[in-house]
């Protein structure tokens, strides 16, 4: 499980029946059947199709790991395809019906589950977590369900704990995982800051389990997968035979290798679900179409959290809230052993994309957002890299750190700027100006700005083209 991701919970039968009466199990099933009829792509402009094929075939050669993608406009699938290999050892190509680990795309389903419980009167979003875990050490603070949903609780992200690797092969309950991290120091007071933490979603899974009397797996199956006819979606594990399951790959010292084993009981409600692009289309249609939760609950899920100081985060409940080409973008990434995933939706033009890939070292935002921009007729311009004076390039070398301790090491190799994050692998960057550098085939980029104290440069890190996720890091070495 990597930091971006990672990476329990459910409902009693009577409660399920009540909720189906409120939202209509028959209506949901009929809507899902209608969606299923539209899975095959409609006619797509040949130039657009060629452009998408060009982007994806260059990123994912036929002899390596790849992706399955779906692009939807309104209720029509306008592009659906697979690139690369699902299983390198058996030379099996990826097709779009294949099943991938979702990683943190799981979180939006967990958040929706919490909203279902809220609508049934079983909890309130501002309930303190001590209502559910009376002995949880809150260090004198009030930590709420809302804080867990929005990554503003101050609770440590459990995969960052030094002993974490010792637990990756263990079969654990959500309460076991909570015991692993609950006595760690708080990172900050609840609501003071945004800091992505899988621990909050493990706690949410345990809350769902406690209220419903079911496992997280049973809850998601009965409340989401079954009524939406998501027949290719599961709670991941290694024992069950799952048709069309894709193998995941990591990058080792000698190249590609099979990803390390990870017990899916560890990520749980933070990242244990698996699915395919067709089922994710069904899910997104139901979520934004009012088939699962009310419009009021959806608006709450997609509204950025306001920090204690009045500043907006860019995160709602299990979904990030950003912009793309001037439109609101509701999205999330996922990363887990062997896999990186992305799904995003533009409500204004009802345009949806899902990109599921079977490597953990390639992010999917670039191809996903590029496809969305093409679909709405506002593509991103091609980046033209340029040569920069070596004296300028060398002046940027150093180690930069954010106020939360995330470090960026900038080095120069053969007059090319390289970037390493938190001691990870270094990636070469291309210059688009004297002070802005992009990762190839990515929207991830860094900008160097003059430091306030005139001591040199600060580094601003972005993962999106629009810059709504800017992160400032100051030179420390």
From TrEMBL:
<dbReference type="InterPro" id="IPR012338">
    <property type="entry name" value="Beta-lactam/transpept-like"/>
</dbReference>
<dbReference type="Pfam" id="PF00144">
    <property type="entry name" value="Beta-lactamase"/>
</dbReference>
<keyword id="KW-0378">Hydrolase</keyword>
<protein>
    <submittedName>
        <fullName>Serine hydrolase</fullName>
    </submittedName>
</protein>
<dbReference type="GO" id="GO:0016787">
    <property type="term" value="F:hydrolase activity"/>
</dbReference>
<dbReference type="InterPro" id="IPR050491">
    <property type="entry name" value="AmpC-like"/>
</dbReference>
<dbReference type="InterPro" id="IPR001466">
    <property type="entry name" value="Beta-lactam-related"/>
</dbReference>
<feature type="domain" description="Beta-lactamase-related">
    <location>
        <begin position="65"/>
        <end position="361"/>
    </location>
</feature>
């Amino acid at each position: 499980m990597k930091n971006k991701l990672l990476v329990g919970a459910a409902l009693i039968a009577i409660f399920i029946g009540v909720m189906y009466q409120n939202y209509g199990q028959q209506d949901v099933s009929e809507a899902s059947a209608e969606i299923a009829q539209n899975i095959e792509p409609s006619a797509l402009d040949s130039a657009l199709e060629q452009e998408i094929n060009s982007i994806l075939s260059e990123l994912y050669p036929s002899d390596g790991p790849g992706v399955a993608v779906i692009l939807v406009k309104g209720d029509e699938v306008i592009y659906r395809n697979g690139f690369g290999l699902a299983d390198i050892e058996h030379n099996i190509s990826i097709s779009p019906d294949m099943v991938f680990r979702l990683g943190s795309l799981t979180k939006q389903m967990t958040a929706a589950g919490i909203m279902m419980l809220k609508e049934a009167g079983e909890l309130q979003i501002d309930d303190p977590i001590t209502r559910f875990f009376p002995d949880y050490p809150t260090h004198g603070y009030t930590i709420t369900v809302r804080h867990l949903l929005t990554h503003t609780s101050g609770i440590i992200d459990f995969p960052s704990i030094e002993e974490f690797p010792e637990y990756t092969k263990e079969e654990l309950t959500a309460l076991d995982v909570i015991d692993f991290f609950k006595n760690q120091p708080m990172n900050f007071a609840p609501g003071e800051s945004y800091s992505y933490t899988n621990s909050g979603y493990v706690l949410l899974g345990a809350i769902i389990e406690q209220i419903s009397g079911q496992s997280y797996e049973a809850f998601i199956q009965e409340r989401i997968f079954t009524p939406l006819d998501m027949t290719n979606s599961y709670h991941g594990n290694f024992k069950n035979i799952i048709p069309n399951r894709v193998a995941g790959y990591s990058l080792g010292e000698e190249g590609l290798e099979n990803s390390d084993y990870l017990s899916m009981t560890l990520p749980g409600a933070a990242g244990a679900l698996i699915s395919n692009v067709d089922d994710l289309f069904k899910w997104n249609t139901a979520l934004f179409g009012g088939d699962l939760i009310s419009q009021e609950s959806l608006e709450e899920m997609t509204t950025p959290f306001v920090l204690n100081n009045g500043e907006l985060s860019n995160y709602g409940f299990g979904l990030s809230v950003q912009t793309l080409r001037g439109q609101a973008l509701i999205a999330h990434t996922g990363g887990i052993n062997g896999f990186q995933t992305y799904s995003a939706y533009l409500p204004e033009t009802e345009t949806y994309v899902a990109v599921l890939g079977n490597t953990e070292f390639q992010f999917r935002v670039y191809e996903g957002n590029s496809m969305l921009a093409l679909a709405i007729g506002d593509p991103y311009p091609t980046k033209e890299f340029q040569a920069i004076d070596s004296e300028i390039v060398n002046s940027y070398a150093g180690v930069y750190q954010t106020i939360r301790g995330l470090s960026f090491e900038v080095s120069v190799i053969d007059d090319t700027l390289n970037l390493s994050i938190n001691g990870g692998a270094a990636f070469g960057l291309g210059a688009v100006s004297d002070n802005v550098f992009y990762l190839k085939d990515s929207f991830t980029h860094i900008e160097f700005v003059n430091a306030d104290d005139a001591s040199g440069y600060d580094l601003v890190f972005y993962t999106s083209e629009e810059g709504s996720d800017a992160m400032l890091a100051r030179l420390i070495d």
